[in-house]
Amino acid sequence: MIPSSQLDAHADGILDFYRKVAxxxxxxxxxxxxxxxxxxxxxxxxxxxxxxxxxxxxCRAWLRWxxxxxxxxxxRLHAEWLEHRSPTGKWAWMIEADGRRDEAPRCYGxxxxxxTASWSLRAGLCGPELLARCYSEMERDFNLPGEALFGxxxxxxxxxxxxxxxxANMHSVEALLAAxxxxxxxxxxxxxxxxxxxLVVELAPQSEGWICEHYRQDWSADWDFHRDNPxxxxxxxxxxxGHQTEWGKLxxxxxxxxxxxxxxxxxxxxxxxxxxxxxxAEHQGLVYGLDRQHKTCDDQKHFWxxxxxxxxxxxxxxxxxxxxxxxxxxxxxxxxQHWVIPGLxxxxxxxxxxxxxxxxxxxxxxxxxxxxxxxxAILDVLGS
Length: 384
Description:
By secondary structure, this protein is mainly α. The protein has one domain: Glycosyltransferase. The chain is built from 12 helices and 12 strands. The strands form 5 sheets. A 3-stranded antiparallel β-sheet has the order 2-3-4. Strands 7-8-9 form a 3-stranded antiparallel β-sheet. α4 packs antiparallel against α5 (128-142) and α10 (303-318) packs parallel to α12. The radius of gyration is 19 Å and the shape is globular. The model has no long low-confidence stretch (mean pLDDT 97).
């Protein structure tokens, strides 16, 4: 088991980089594009996912370390997040540098709004009304009558598109668990449990027990969606290694509040099978994408896959799953060796090639990375 002091120091080091960016940057908004030399790049776009995750990072920092400067930064980032909401109640997925707003509703964004409201409530930055409003908007826009799961996206005219996906629903479970922790309201836990059971128990058999990424309107697996676009940021083709393990993490967190017999075995199976299938025996690390036969279809390596997989394994180890312990240690040591950027104090590279060469030299991009997965995964293991 990795010592908690080591985990704590690394999470703090990751976020300290962003504290320094905040102190040095003179622009109006916290920058969302940073290169792997630690330099802020001239890109004034603001993505809802990055805005929410930056706020969550520093709400959690305040709750963990109780430093007033973290609370002030969280307050600033909370205000920047709320600027994504227009007076008409629509949330901008992206705000361009010239002020143009993409306000097509996406469940992924709604989930992160709920998650941000949850952590903001716990940090004392808002009242329960904001949490309730974010959930009400999520239900209004994406609830499917008679179905535990949420729809995915509406077009500019407000029409719900036929695509159904697991990714937004997975992050909805994350957000609902946080909403339950912040409010104590049982409805959030009930919905999180219903979504998890639907995807992990009822729908997974059609994809050989793993979590399929993409579905048709009737929730039949769609094996061809984005076959020609396997590296789409939010909807890539194939099985996502990191989503199997991220589900493992969320299932452990669910089980700690609702101890149903199916949950821990499912969490253990998804996490360990994904690690076994995706581990690169030659170069180490977990590859990004696997095909239907669980063979590598995308051999790039992404920071969040390593981080979320470590968190899942460490939480399983805490639950007494002995097979997870060596994997957790292996992945932690590997990540420290290959992913932590020298000289920056803690942040990780964003994407590496199979041999760990860097061809993408950004460590933060709008919608792509602000070290939410790295610091957050460690704080999850620490129980913070």
